[in-house]
Amino acid sequence: MLAEILILVPSIARFREDYLQTRLEKAQIASLALLTTDDTISPELERELLDNAGVFNVVLRRDAVRQLVLSSPIPEPIDETYDLRMISHAALIGDALREFVDPTPRIIRVIGSPVEQGGDLIEVAMSTAPLRQAMVQYSIRILAISAVISVITAAILFVAVQKLMVVPIRRVVAHMAVYAEAPEDARRVIEPGARIVEIREAEEALRSMQTQLTGNLRQKERLAQLGGAVAKISHDLRNILTSAQLFADRIGSSADPAVARAAPKLVNSITRAVSLCETTLAFGKAEEPPPSLTRFSLRMLIDEVLDAELPEEGRVAPVLDVPAGMMIRADREQFYRVLSNLVRNARQAIEATGESGNIEIAGGEADVEWWVRLGDTGPGLPPKAREHLFTAFQGGARKGGSGLGLAIASELVRGHGGRLELLDTSETGTEFLIRLPKAESLTEA
Hints:
By secondary structure, this protein is α+β, with helices and mostly antiparallel strands. It has 10 helices and 12 strands. The strands form 3 sheets. Strands 2-1-5-4-3 form a 5-stranded mixed beta sheet. A 5-stranded mixed beta sheet has the order 7-9-10-12-11. A two-stranded antiparallel ribbon has the order 6-8. A hairpin with an 8-residue loop joins strand 4 (107-112) and strand 5. Helix 1 (2-35) packs antiparallel against helix 4. The relative contact order is 0.06. It catalyses: ATP + protein L-histidine = ADP + protein N-phospho-L-histidine. Its EC number is 2.7.13.3.
């Protein structure tokens, strides 16, 4: 619409100027008929000449003499005078708009320069009714041509949009529907082929997402199969451990003092192994049983973990900073697994260096939470392990490691409403922080 206005309005103004200039030229030609007959023509011929020119009179100025060459009765007074010799483009546009908007017929005087040096000035009087009618017809023709051009342009744009945008978008949608039917089938991943840069980028992003999703689904399927196999193994292993537990109970009644001291630790270890086997199926379903919260001594639990995970004559020594009377509320068996996984990972990291080292464990409490900080003097975590630190089978820090330890520990801590965080890791060691809320529910928090 804006383009049409910018084209139509100046075009109408130019048409009006050409129309008036044509009237002047025809009036000049009519006046030449009179000049060639020594100023004597019949009234009928004079009227015919004026009608052909479309004017009421013709005034010529030649050799500084102003002469009324042709004339006829003017039906009403002259309303306005237009001098085409010194009019600006803005004035032409303004006059044309006023003429186009006002339908009232008027008598106007038009002044211009004669052609072919036919004098100094030519002046005519004419009606605006034929002028306005001609302007309206011209506008209709322009609008009709513009409508045809618009239809052709719209058709071209429609075909272009269909071919360049709609068809590629439909192709993307169709690929998404086909992929959704079997996302594990890598053959259904889209291959970018659009020529529009933005759509091609969308196809490439979709391909990346589909490829990643297909890989994740395959991994989930393998994990599910692995979980089923582990559950079967755990079932049989639990039966074996149950039998071992009976023998361990008998060992506890041994008269040998060393055996009597080791027997309770052996019984506790076997008991925890049986409990772990019983919860394996739940972990295979990506969920742990809800924690059974009890109050217990954190220092005693840490001592049990260190007795089970750190050999007495090993290269790794514990450094404890935990108040002896500090009590926390958590699931004792699950929190034992959390600390056991963290201590085991720390010990293995230090032993991999072939040098001696320390595992530092500190504990404390604030108004709303208990915290346990566990650090080691190992070599630190590699960059790949940091990216998927708490993801099973992806966050392993050592060759052959599965990454399950940190994944299990993180899941168990989240089950308590807490967080397991990596505080720092570098060439001098790694440090984790466990936060356990004191509130038993969100309403208390």
